[in-house]
Amino acid sequence: MQGKDYILxxxxxxxxxxxxxxxxxxxxxLFATNDVGELFYDVPETLKTFGKITALVGFxxxxxxxxxxxxxQWLENFFNGLNRVYIAHHITGGIALSFLLFHxxxxxxxxxxxxxxxxxxxxADYLLPDTFNSMDELAAIQEVVAFDSGIIALIxxxxxxxxxxxxxxxxxxxLFTHRFLGVAFLxxxxxxxxxNSDVADSLxxxxxxxxxxxxxxxxxxxxxxxxxxxxxxxxxxxxxxALLEKDVIGMYLEPIGRAVNYVSxxxxxxxxxxxxxDGISDETHPFSIAANPGAKGIVLYVKAxxxxxxxxxxxxxxxxxxxxxxxxxxxxxxxxxxxQIWIAGGIGITPFIGMARDLTERAPAVDLYYSVQTxxxxxxxxxxxxxxxxxxxxxxxxxxxxxETNEFLSASFIHEQSGDFLGKEIFICGPPAxxxxxxxxxxxxxxx
Length: 448
Prior knowledge:
By secondary structure, the chain is of the alpha/beta class. It has helices spanning 3-32, 36-39, 43-67, 73-79, 82-109, 117-126, 141-166, 171-178, 180-194, 198-201, 203-225, 227-230, 307-311, 350-358, 381-391, 402-405, 411-418, 432-444; strands at residues 234-243, 248-255, 267-273, 285-288, 298-303, 320-327, 340-345, 366-372, 395-401, 425-429. It is elongated, with a radius of gyration of 27 Å. Strand 7 (340-345), helix 14 (350-358) and strand 8 form a beta-alpha-beta unit. The longest helix has 30 residues, at 3-32.
């Protein structure tokens, strides 16, 4: 790789590098505060040690998972975009669950002796909650409660993540259940900090794990419990909303007080207040901005694909919206002065409209490809086909209509019109299947 490639690689991977580093630190501290030979003295001790490692790594990943859900702009800098932050959030949740599942199994396995049925019974009992038998055991309350807290946390996390990964719940129900991940984490934190373990025996390890407990709980409280109070949102008034061709709703909103600070190509999270009578819930949804930062208000185009987006056609002028953001690294301003190719599919044209409106004389040369099923689906045609080429001579526009060609837009067609891809930045936004196909075609043609 060349120097520029290394820089881009590092910018995209720095978040994952930090996740791996933070996850490894408690393992290093475990080895530093113990005799490594004793940790792997025999099979039972080895199983016990791996049980400790999976607990430490799994808990840190659990805390990181909660942190990645706070939806803050500064997190984007570590992953090069909020979409990648949420991908990392999804992956760390799955890995954390796997590690934490192995933790009790490995600890129980140290007691297994297949020549003795009683050892199997003892190993199975290890996985069950502990109890108090008499008042004489009050001195062991902390240990028992800490042990049971770990079991409660594990069961809670398993149930909640299974619902997340494998069960398609309605959005509101999913959001409600997802909030209990913080409750499960609270029990997990109590277990880690108060169980009789290497964490309790090492001040450095205690401080490290307590820090991640505080980070995870703080992130959960910030986003899920106090989100409506502490998260900064801008209030906007809907000045106009209309149903355009092919189930596309166009909206124009102006700020009431502080406006959203954004760059062209970014997106915001928006919720409409008091619109339940129009069938519009107060759920929060992300939409790309189709305006440039110099505009008074913001323009949004939304494809009616589900119950919520379909109801937006009922939106009335004067309705109030709360907007959080803006987010995203999808902007031509982040990629220097190299020529650029923009590839839009359907409603994926929205961020490109905002970027096109923002182009200046010093902006890079741009070829915009806009793929739709039918010609009546094309939006903002006057801006893209007439206004933009007139004010920006290096802007070229290529509408591509499937029903007129009976073929999908291809990388080879783009290559014929725009020439060699070498040295050009390529942006793609559209339906997932279209983006996946286009990326695959471009890679086959040598695009990294």
